[in-house]
Write a structure and sequence with these properties.
Length: 165
């Protein structure tokens, strides 16, 4: 997928968000570390939001924490605004099993109770394990078992299909 194609997907996602939210003053865009933050930064700029961007690190909320352990350095979550009664756009790069989004929702709700959460995903791929679906989507792909897709970046953004390691 070319850089231009990724930019077109981001532009399309931003247009859909503009149509959903005419009053963008009440929005908080939150990107999931790392690729979700890169996508969220692009959407934040395209939406011309004045509020700061939120960054979510779900390392402590993952359900595979006990088997994969903790990375030596974990960036903290940074939610610059109150979560209560705010419309949150939760952004990630690739939606696969749904477990990352489940962990992100758990963390967000530990900070408060948002008015709503809209899930914006750049790439949706097959292999869902939880009933989680994107509200705003760049595109869907189907990968054979044993492959995964990775967003590389931050500048420029590119997508790579790789074998599972």
């Amino acid at each position: 997928m070319s850089i231009n194609h990724i930019e077109m997907l981001l532009f399309s996602m931003a247009n859909e968000l503009k149509q959903r939210y005419t009053n963008r003053d009440e929005l908080l865009i939150v990107g999931i570390q790392t690729g979700g933050v890169w996508v969220a930064e692009r959407l934040h700029k395209l939406l011309e939001l004045s509020q700061p961007l939120g960054i979510l690190n779900i390392s402590f909320y993952r359900d595979d924490f006990s088997s994969i352990g903790l990375h030596p350095y974990v960036d903290p979550t940074a939610l610059p605004l109150e979560v209560d009664d705010r419309h949150i756009i939760l952004v990630d790069d690739v939606l696969h099993t749904g477990r990352t989004i489940r962990a992100a929702l758990n963390e967000i709700f530990d900070y408060g109770r948002p008015a709503s959460v809209t899930l914006a995903i750049l790439i949706d791929r097959n292999g869902r394990e939880l009933p989680i679906q994107p509200d705003v989507l760049g595109c869907s792909i189907s990968l054979e078992q044993g492959k995964h897709i990775k967003l590389c970046g931050p500048d420029p953004l590119s997508l790579e299909i790789r074998p599972n390691s």
